[in-house]
Amino acid sequence: MKILVPIKRVPDPATTIRVLPDGSGIATDNVKWVINPFDEIAIEEALRIKEKQAGSEVVLVTIGQSTWQEQLRTGLAMGADRAILVKNDGYLDPLALAKIIAKVAAGENADLVLLGKQAIDDDSNQVGQMLAELLGWPQATFASKVEFADKRVTVIREVDGGLETIAFNLPAVVTTDLRLNEPRYASLPGIMKARKKELKEVAAESLGLDLAPKLKIKSLTAPPKRQAGRKVASVEELVSVLHTEAKVI
Amino acid sequence: MDEVQDRDIIAAVRGFVEREVIPFASDFEHRDEYPHPMVAGLKSLGLFGATIPAEHGGLGLSFATYARVMEELSRGWMSLAGVINSHLIMAFIITHHGTAAQKEYFLPAMARGDKRGGLALTEPHAGSDVQSIRTTAVRRGDDYVLKGSKMFITNARNGTMLAVAAKTDPLAKPAYAGISMFAVEKNDAGPAVGANLKKLGYKGIDTCEVTLDDLAVPAANLIGGAEGLGFKQVMSALEVGRINVAARAVGVGQAAFETAIHYAQQRTAFGKPICEHQAVQLLLADMGTGVEAARLMVANAARKKDAGERCDVEAGMAKLFASEACAKISLDAMRVLGGYGFMQEFPVERFYRDAPLMMIGEGTNEIQALVIARGLLARYPA
Fold this sequence. Notes:
heterodimer, A: alpha/beta, Rossmann fold, nine-stranded mixed beta sheet, 11 strands, about 25% helix, B: alpha+beta, Butyryl-Coa Dehydrogenase, subunit A, domain 1, Butyryl-CoA Dehydrogenase, subunit A, domain 2, Butyryl-CoA Dehydrogenase, subunit A, domain 3, four-stranded antiparallel beta sheet, three-stranded mixed beta sheet, 12 helices, about 15% strand
């Protein structure tokens, strides 16, 4: 089975994010970049599938600048077989990203595209769904368990109010939720092996796709500062404040 | 040398330390509990093979990269660098002086962390003065029988074997010519490992007294296969130990500095963050400069070692300077944190208690000064 894992480079979740004064983006100095945690879970799941199904191949793909190689190398060090960097400097909206991934998936003859349900930077949660539509493949989002029997996949998904089990045939798109697995660390021997693995670069404009954004980011603002709490003297006062001021009861 | 790869390796170790060490280090340390989960992490990272050559199953890291890795580990918890240090000193001795059979038998298992070594050199009455050890080894058939006791032995309990220095010829003149090294694997017969010694710092890790009570060791485990080579074998590995200890000092110094500079921006006094008070700025500038200078000295000694140059003076200087700087920085960090620095809720008190080990371990700083002075006098004859 060939598994394609698209990954995105995002600021480390532990980084303090500062919005630029003009609201055009975030300050990137002193930001540590990592693989989007949901994509890391997708890599881990792909590696576990590969460990169970001999002869499988795990191919990583990312869309961005040359520096994004760093995250591909981390994925290769975890155990992926090879990686593709689709080079692009400007902003791409979720649909453009889905189009690129669809093209790569078709070119690679992938059986499965496994990716994070969303990236933790803008939390769009759109690429997986759009990708399945563009490819005409079945999709399962928010997977918390993935199982295979021949070419048939059974996925348990986390939905509001419980778990849903769905089954479909490959090829397919699966997006990963937090509880699917706990990703492994890249070992140091893994890091050394990664340097010898194939990392191919392709220019985004060479793919012959319409990548013009349909979405425009107008401005970013930091969330409002959290207000200090307030102490009330009695239960009566609490109920009264919740009723008259907060208007929640 | 592959710079990108080295950077990735250091970043991976840093990530491990941030996630698996820093949040838990003080708890283990205050309980003086061996950090089994962290050591398992070191094993799965592959760090037990850090400087073991690739042809023997190790990572074959340069000493420059190894020093940075030890710094990162010590930035989380200095004791972890101790788990690796004497293991790799033993591996270094086998790599450079062992017989082909010894390399084949020990090194791949050591690189995996399945066999874990230590160094049993120091005795109750002999530390820096290695030649005065009293442990003896007497040939009897296919074995040597070892008798004596060793002190302050790191990894004695949780390791599986020790490189033991013993006198095969107690009457040899000069005395060092009578010393031999043995790779002693622990079994039911011994060596006997005493209770974990209680320490000021460097806690969690096992430091024990070890007794060899007529313990039979196969002659095949005499390192290098010939008697009387032990002293030179040990001396050749001491630079590795010094670089390790110096790198630990850089890591602890960095951790103390970071704690202080973050705290100084959050704590206010007299209406502004204390980092805006000049008295605190002077401390921060001094601390940052000390760490930077120490790191560069360690890097320089490691680079010389990598190039195959003699570096006893530079390694000694790095160890001396970095450990003294670390002690001062950890105390300065306590000044910046004030009362909080003195409390166990902050890690500064741990850095302060850990710092003196680097002034004492792998040859006291006074011995370093002698080595440096002798080296300099030889280098600058009148």
